[in-house]
């Protein structure tokens, strides 16, 4: 059992901060620390912004140029529409999704 003096000392000495951890993970992590107790949370649902290759319409556009699509899937295991004509069409139709998970 904790006494009032100890609780008052903990409240006086406590620090509260929020820190976003940058890592190579797809989901950003948020850490909240308070009075020696630490909580780490991650996003439960994926963000709306995705890489070009994760959009179904992006995959379809990648197939419009068969040679480029085959090269991208063989060399990179994903479709890369960034500066191709398919990517320009995609940006006009669907907007410009983030290239990395951390971009907003």
Automatic annotation (TrEMBL):
- Residues forming the Exotoxin A binding domain are 1-100
Q: Which InterPro entries does this entry report, sorted A to Z?
A: ConA-like_dom_sf (IPR013320), Exotox-A_bind (IPR015185)
Q: Which Pfam families match?
A: Exotox-A_bind (PF09101)
So which domain of life are we looking at?
A: Bacteria
Q: What is this protein called?
A: ToxA
Q: Which gene encodes it?
A: toxA
